[in-house]
Design brief:
Helix content is 36%, strand content 16%. The protein is built from 9 helices and 10 strands. The relative contact order is 0.20. The chain is globular. The strands form 2 sheets. Strands 1, 2, 4, 5, 7, 8, 9 and 10 form an 8-stranded mixed β-sheet that branches. By secondary structure, it is an alpha/beta fold.
């Protein structure tokens, strides 16, 4: 998977935002590995940055699957009196530091680009230097839920605010072929509003739909696990969500192989 292969296109893997639905990225990565589908770098937004970053740091993707399935994810959230977010983020920052082995971007097994949004300018921010855990912490910082991350004069929040599925970034970094994984806008989407977090996450989905409609045709392969019926909070459903990621990836394997083998390198 990670070895450089000659005489093939440069492939970018784009992992989109989606909170708990983003656990489907684990299943997609498993199937790509099992079928020896290569890629040269990952561009991740929010949960896509988290799963992609942990994987690029050398984590066993099958072990990550088992760990998440049996993990009480509520232990990662330090609820406090809100100033800039209900969750301080120290616990999940420690978790990310552990899972990425405190690696910097330069120490990863292959290149990773993590997306965030600067509240001061409203611009998309591409993070590819420094500690990977710090970048992921910024990329998953849902506005109003997680306290934002202050970095280099910016106030950073969730990558989904500005770029839920960063296909254009993959193209700008030289991807000949883009495999994009969307975990938000597949068929069968159901909306359930039960609390403030649902309001925030559903609002982000709505904000991202127009951009998604513009960028998804720019992908060569679009994988859409059928997870949109799950709540973005459904971390306890990880087994089902990962399996749906596997199912969607398996359905695209032959198409991916055809795109790679028929790509004109001249």
């Amino acid at each position: 998977m990670r070895e450089k292969q000659l005489n093939r296109p440069r492939i970018g893997l784009v992992l989109g935002a989606g909170s708990a639905r983003g656990l489907a990225h684990i299943g997609v990565l498993q199937v790509l590995n099992e079928n020896n589908i290569p890629f040269d770098f990952i561009v991740g937004s929010s949960m896509g940055a988290m799963i992609g970053g942990i994987y690029a740091a050398g984590a066993d993707i099958n072990m990550l699957d088992r760990m998440i399935e049996h993990m009480d994810t509520s232990l990662l959230f330090d609820i406090h009196v809100p100033r800039m977010g209900f969750i301080g983020g120290k616990k999940i920052a420690s978790f990310l530091s552990l899972m990425t082995k405190k690696k910097t971007f330069s120490e990863l097994d292959f290149p990773l680009l993590a997306m965030a949004t600067d509240l001061l300018t409203g611009q998309r921010v591409i993070m590819e230097e420094g500690l990977v855990a710090d970048a992921i912490r910024a990329s998953i910082s849902i506005p109003g839920v997680f306290s934002p991350v202050k970095r280099d004069g910016m106030i950073l929040v969730d990558g989904a605010v500005s770029d839920r599925l960063p296909i254009e970034v993959a193209r700008s970094r030289g991807a000949d072929l883009v495999i994009a994984v969307d975990v938000t806008f597949s068929q069968g989407k159901q909306i359930s509003i039960n609390n403030a977090l649902d309001v925030i996450l559903t609002s982000l989905d709505i904000m991202g739909k127009q951009q998604f409609d513009l960028v998804y045709p720019q992908s060569d392969i679009l994988i859409q696990p059928r997870v949109s019926a799950y709540s973005p909070r459904s971390f306890e459903k990880s087994r089902e969500i990962v399996d749906l990621g596997r199912e969607a990836a398996k359905a695209k394997i032959e198409d991916i192989r055809d795109k790679i083998s028929n790509f004109n390198l001249s």
